[in-house]
Design brief:
single chain, 412 residues, BirA Bifunctional Protein, domain 2, Rossmann fold, 2 domains, eight-stranded mixed sheet, 16 strands
C-alpha cells in the first residue's frame, strides 16, 4: 500500500452523517429567501483576480494576504474569497439592470481564503448570502436585516444581537478620515504593521484591528471623541435615522456600534452584524451592508445595492445536531430478483427504499433494517406466492401482511 493521502489543512469532508444539517440550512435558506421574492444564482468558483482587487479592495487582508491566486494562460485567476463581487459581475454582464428593481439574488457555496484555521473558520468554507440591487431607500436596508434575522430564527437561533452603524458616503466620510488620521498620528509608531499600512490607504480599517495594543490606543479619549462624533452629511444622517425607525417598527432590537466598519472596502452607509452569544469572542454569525458604488466600480451603471453573507460552518456549529434521515423501507428477502423489482416499484412512487445486494441471511438483513429504515418489508417465499408483503413497523414492532401494490401507501 502507498502512503494514505489526507485532506488539505483548513479543509474538511462533509460526511454523510453530517449532511442533514447542511441540507436543512440550505432548505431553510431557499424557503425564507423565496418568501421575500429572492431568486437563487450560482456563479463560478474561479474568477479573474482583478474582480477582487477592484471590488473587495487592494487594502484588505483578503486581497493582500488570503487569496488563492494562480496564473493560467497568462491570465491571473483566483478562487473566490467571497461572492458579492462575483454576483455583481454577473448582474452587470447579464444585463440584470434592465430588470425591474429590486433585483434580489441569493447564493450558497464554497469560498477560499488562506488564513489560520480556527473554530468555525476554514480555508475552504461555505457561505450563504443575499444581494439586492436597485433600491437606494433605507427600506431595502431594513428588509435585508429582517431577512437575515428571519433566516437565522428559522434554523433555530434566537439568542441574536444586531449591531448597526453608518459609514456615510465617500463625500462626508473624507473629512472624518482626515480627523481620524490626525488624532491617531501621534501613536502611529506604536500601531501594528497592518495598521501602519492602513493608516494612509484606508484609515477606517484601523477600527477593525483585533490586536489588543491597537485596541487600547483606539480606546483613548481623544480618539473615541472623533470615532463617536456625528460626521454624517444630512442625506446620510436621514438615511440612517429612517433605517432605525424601520427596525423599531419591525420589532428588531439593535445596538449602535461606532466601531463597526466591516472588513471590505466597498461598504457605504449602512453596515451591520448579527451576533450569537454562543460563539465566544468570534461571535459574528452574519455581516453585511450597503455598497452603492460597487456596481459602477466594476463597470456597470450607477446602482445602489445592499447584501449580507454568513458562514455556514459557523452557523451549523451553533445548531443542535439532527439525526440522519432513515429510509422509508428496507426490503428483507433472499430472492434478490423480486427484491429488486419491489424496490423499483416503490421508488417509482417516491419512497426511499433499499435492499440487501449481498443476499445475506434474513436475521442480518432484519438487523440492518432496524438501523436504517422505518419499515422492514419482508418478502419471503409465502409472500411472493401470495403477491403480498409483510410490513414491520420498526419503531413499534407491529407487523402485518398487505397486498404488494399497497406497499406504496405505507405511512412514512
Amino acid at each position: 500500500m502507498g502512503q494514505i493521502l489526507k485532506v488539505l489543512k483548513g479543509t474538511k469532508d462533509i460526511l454523510p452523517q453530517d449532511i442533514n444539517m447542511w441540507q436543512f440550512v440550505e432548505e431553510k435558506a431557499n424557503k425564507v429567501f423565496s418568501s421575500f421574492g429572492v431568486k437563487e444564482i450560482r456563479t463560478p468558483i474561479i474568477e479573474v483576480t482583478e474582480l477582487f482587487s477592484r471590488g473587495v479592495g487592494d487594502t484588505t487582508d483578503i486581497v493582500n494576504k488570503e487569496m488563492y491566486t494562480f496564473e493560467k494562460s497568462e491570465r491571473s485567476i483566483t478562487l473566490r474569497p467571497e461572492n458579492t463581487a462575483g454576483v455583481v459581475r454577473s448582474y452587470i454582464e447579464n444585463g440584470m439592470h434592465r430588470l425591474p428593481a429590486p433585483v434580489k439574488l441569493w447564493y450558497h457555496g464554497p469560498m477560499f481564503r488562506y488564513e489560520r484555521p480556527q473554530a468555525g473558520r476554514q480555508r475552504q468554507f461555505h457561505q450563504v448570502g443575499v444581494e439586492m440591487f436597485g433600491i437606494k431607500q433605507p427600506a431595502a436596508d431594513a428588509e435585508i436585516i429582517l431577512m437575515a434575522t428571519d433566516f437565522l430564527k428559522s434554523v433555530g437561533l434566537n439568542d441574536l444581537e444586531v449591531e448597526i452603524n453608518s459609514l456615510g458616503c465617500p463625500k462626508c466620510r473624507a473629512d472624518f478620515k482626515e480627523k481620524l488620521k490626525a488624532v491617531i498620528k501621534p501613536y502611529l509608531n506604536n500601531l501594528c504593521e497592518d495598521c501602519q499600512n492602513r493608516y494612509e490607504k484606508n484609515p477606517l480599517r484601523l477600527l477593525d484591528c483585533k490586536v489588543p495594543e491597537c485596541q487600547a490606543i483606539y480606546a483613548k479619549k481623544e480618539i473615541q471623541e472623533v470615532i463617536m462624533s456625528d460626521f454624517l452629511c444630512d442625506e446620510c444622517r436621514e438615511h440612517y435615522k429612517e433605517l432605525k425607525l424601520y427596525l423599531d417598527n419591525l420589532g428588531i432590537k439593535y445596538n449602535e456600534n461606532k466601531l463597526l466598519v466591516r472588513g471590505l472596502d466597498y461598504y457605504t452607509r449602512t453596515v451591520f452584524e448579527i451576533k450569537s452569544n454562543n460563539l465566544g469572542s468570534q461571535n459574528a454569525v452574519c455581516g453585511g451592508g450597503r455598497y452603492d458604488n460597487l456596481v459602477e466600480q466594476l463597470g456597470g451603471e450607477p446602482t445602489p445595492a445592499i447584501g449580507f453573507a454568513m458562514g455556514m460552518e459557523r452557523l451549523i456549529s451553533l445548531l443542535p445536531q439532527k439525526e440522519s434521515k432513515k429510509l422509508d423501507g428496507y426490503i428483507v428477502s433472499n430472492d434478490s430478483q423480486e427484491a429488486f423489482k419491489l424496490a423499483q416499484e416503490l421508488r417509482a412512487h417516491g419512497l426511499n427504499i433499499e435492499f440487501d445486494l449481498a443476499n445475506k441471511k434474513f436475521t442480518k438483513q432484519l438487523e440492518k433494517a432496524s438501523k436504517v429504515a422505518n419499515y422492514a418489508l419482508i418478502l419471503g417465499e409465502d409472500e411472493i406466492k401470495s403477491n403480498q408483503v409483510s410490513v414491520k413497523n420498526l419503531a413499534t414492532g407491529e407487523q402485518k401482511a398487505i397486498n404488494r401494490e399497497d406497499c406504496k401507501n405505507i405511512e412514512v
